[in-house]
Amino acid sequence: MHEISVCESVRRIVEEHARAHAVRRVRRVRLEIGRFSCVGGEAMRFAFDVVMKGSVADGAELVLVELPGRARCDACGRDVEIDDWLAPCPVCGSPGLTPLGGDEMRIRDMEVA
Predict the structure, then answer these.
(1) Which residues are CB-neighbours of 43 under 8 A, at least 6 positions away?
(2) CB atoms within 10 A of CB 77
(3) Which side of the chain, N or C, has fewer Cβ within a 10 Å radius?
(4) pLDDT 10s digits, 39-60
(5) Residues 45, 47, 51, 53: is their CA dihedral positive or negative?
(6) Rounded CA gap, 111 and 40, in Å?
(7) Residues 6+ apart with CB under 8 A from 2
């Protein structure tokens, strides 16, 4: 369950920013997670609640924002959204796509008190 290690990294970042800005409490953390990042939503929420215990984000709400898969078609040159790495180009049907995104993960923002 790599969601635990992901949440431990999130905790470190949240606590560093909280210290740097004299934040006493984090109420909400919004994470952008790419469709192909292999992170399960429910597992992530569970891990977040467990890992944040005793931190400035203890009891904070986790909001997950799914980012679409993106690729550039080698045939028509368009940047397209995809649901599957092996999908053909939704514009021209070509099977040659170069991945551009969908596996990223980042903290988008935090609501603090």
Answers:
(1) 1, 3
(2) 10
(3) C
(4) 888 999 999 999 999 999 999 9
(5) positive
(6) 23
(7) 38, 39
* Two tokens, residue 58: 């203890």
pTM listed for this prediction:
0.83
Where are the domains positioned within the chain?
Answer: 3-69+102-112
Max intra-chain CA distance, the chain: 53
For residues 38-74, one letter each, b for 16 or more C-beta atoms within 10 angstroms of the residue's C-beta and e for the rest, the string is: ebeeeebbbbbeebbeebbbeebebebeebebbbebe
If one counts every other C-beta atom within 10 angstroms of the C-beta of residue 100, the result is 13
| Confidence band, pLDDT 50/70/90 cuts, at residue 1 | low
Which CATH code is given to the segment(s) 3-69+102-112? 3.30.2320.50
